[in-house]
Amino acid sequence: MSKWLASVQSLEEAQILLPILPDILDMKDPSKGALGALSVETVTEIVALINNRCQTSATIGDLPMQADMIAEAMTNMARSGVDYVKIGLFPDSNLNSCIKDLEKTVKTLNAPVIAVLFADKSIDLEIISLLKDSGFEGVMIDTAIKNGQSLLEHWPLQQLTTFVSIVRQKNMLCGLAGSLKIEDIKSLQPLEADYLGFRSALCQQQQRTQSLQLALAEQVQQAIS
């Protein structure tokens, strides 16, 4: 049975979710892109608020595939005490060498690192083996362009099944996200990903930059239980 991840953009939204915390409380700034980063200070405050009542994760921003820049951002975010640090991997001729150059940081960081790939960008799933060798704890598939199209509009179930199977064969955590709707849960749960991630489904008018609503979070929690 898949667990669920909910993304919040502020301390106030994290407080809204306290009555029904998800399995992973994720932190990002949706106004700054697919994986826009909150400040380390804000993430630290939210981690303290949660106080180990659920796991936490935080993104480091939509950064270019430059290992030194990513390593610095990962190291800074890990200081917040978050359980997982998430980094987006975007198509780039330098991508493989960037991942290899991140290996030392990934393997010595005091928080496991989750790689995020994008279904609406070019992806070679062979990269999952490289991520495993480089010390990454897990892999998520998401969407980079937030135009209301969900993950299932980019990848059919068969392609998602293959993705989940490859990640799980590597004994890595596997997550599915990307403008997922409540009604997508029924289709995605049989794939047995570790986590399904939600942001827009929790917000007013299904708009990811709008404020999170407790009632919508309750609907997701009930649907995934």
Description of the structure:
It is a single chain. The chain is an alpha/beta fold. Helix content is 36%, strand content 17%. The chain has one domain: Aldolase class I (TIM Barrel, Alpha-Beta Barrel), CATH 3.20.20.70. It has an 8-stranded parallel beta barrel, surrounded by 5 helices. Strand 2 (24-27), helix 2 and strand 3 form a beta-alpha-beta unit. It starts with a strand and ends with a helix.
Mean pLDDT: 95
Within the CATH hierarchy, at the fold level, what is the topology?
TIM Barrel
Separation of termini?
8 Å
* Residues in β-strands, percent: 15-25%
State the domain count: 1
**Helix and strand pattern:** EHEHEHEHEHEHHEHEH
CATH architectural category: Alpha-Beta Barrel
Q: Biggest sheet: strands, sense, closure?
A: 8 strands, parallel, barrel
Per DSSP, the total helix count is 9
Strand order of the largest sheet: 1-2-3-4-5-6-7-8
Assembly context of the chains: single chain
CATH H-level superfamily title:
Aldolase class I
Helix percent band: 25-40%
Unreliable residue stretches: none
Helix/strand/pairing category:
alpha/beta
Shape: globular
- Structural Rg: 16 Å
CATH class: Alpha Beta
Q: What's the total count of β strands? A: 8
